[in-house]
Specification:
The protein is α/β, with parallel strands linked by helices. It has 18 helices and 14 strands. The longest helix is centred in the middle third of the chain and has 32 residues. It is elongated, with a radius of gyration of 24 Å.
Amino acid sequence: MVSNPVQTGLRICCIGAGYVGGPTMAMMALKCPEVTVTIVDISVPRIAAWNSDELPIYEPGLDKVVKACRGKNLFFSTDVDQGIRDADVIFVAVNTPTKKVGLGAGRAADLTYWELAARRIASVAESPKVVVEKSTVPIKTAEAISAVLHGAGKTRFDVLSNPEFLAEGTAMTDLDNPDRVLIGGNMNESGQAAVAKLADVYAHWVPRERILTTNVWSSELSKLVANSFLAQRVSSINAVSAICEASGADVDEVARAVGMDSRIGPKFLKASVGFGGSCFQKDILNLVYLCQSMGLPDVAEYFHSVVTMNDRQKERFVSRIIHGLFNTVTGKRIALLGFAFKKDTGDTRESAAIEICRRLIEERASVCIYDPKVEANQIWMDLTAATRLDKTEVEKYVTLCDSAYEAATGAHALAVATEWDEFKGLDFAKIQDGMVKPCFVFDGRNVLDHAALRKLGYIVYAIGKPLDPKLNTNFC
């Protein structure tokens, strides 16, 4: 049952105007009209975009919510210090990427931005604050951050863990009707009062029975475990897809049969070229590092196998393209449909498309990319980082296109990397007319009508489906 707590005058600040901070705070402002919500960020262009008609991130429904609240009780600012001073509750939603150098590189979370935010809060805050971990962080981070805040600060701080469980593309729906809200805090009187204050914010629209309270360490660990379990399901069905291709079984039929078991359920049993996004791989590797640090090598190896299988799935897909095109793609045009890690988002972090492109460039293919939402600058940045080539070199092999039809013109093959709905409605007869024969389709998301494509004369490869007898499977 939803309660209606009154929190007139409550002021909330969120440090970090990205994929987590922006949508979360916008929904909070919509549902709590008497609460003032300010999102601060040091990036002037990002804040300017939030204050414009062109928001810096794409998420269905976000634009409508922001415009309904902006200038009323939702504000975007670069004045970080003022936001901190004015706030009663401070959310920290800064990036916590995987470390690239130093101890734990490639596995541990890089908490540099989190610590900088904590030190900024400590130096500026003049009255007691509730500080909320919204970024995904390792277990025991709250303890470390509390030490920084109280060591460098002039007032009292209560640190809470309130992990986000959003899926990009459905974030606004997830925020409006969450499965649960998790709040972890210290078990002392001050900590529990802080937990109650934050719970009252969410209780404006979330039934109390869905607001779970735990100790802070359980909350921090729960987020890592949740994402590891979801990714594990994806890697499991992708492993099954390899068996299906070798045996003639159909992975969708297997997934349906397995998913009808009420103990398992059907979600996250869709075979694909592999999972991506900002959370799954990062959180699993973080969990792996924690296990290794705690002297649990067998547990670490178990969770790391989920990432290994995901990497293998991307390599299998590229291998199918190369061997399907008669064991070479050198000089051949490949139309890559989609670059975002999933549909209904412009986010490319850990997108399977990046690794597909890197491998095709390595093979000296000509890759023509079309994605309806990803910005060109983002694609160039991702590919130069992945290939370790400068943009001029990458441009020798990659062309960015304004439509799927443009990308497919003169192509030897189409490769679907993102499950955008528009790809289902393409005129494949028209596309076929402009392609090099024989025409190939490699469907990495199993979203196309494969029977219809074969009827038109395409040679089709689909993840986990019986192999097309016309597809070359002789690996050289």
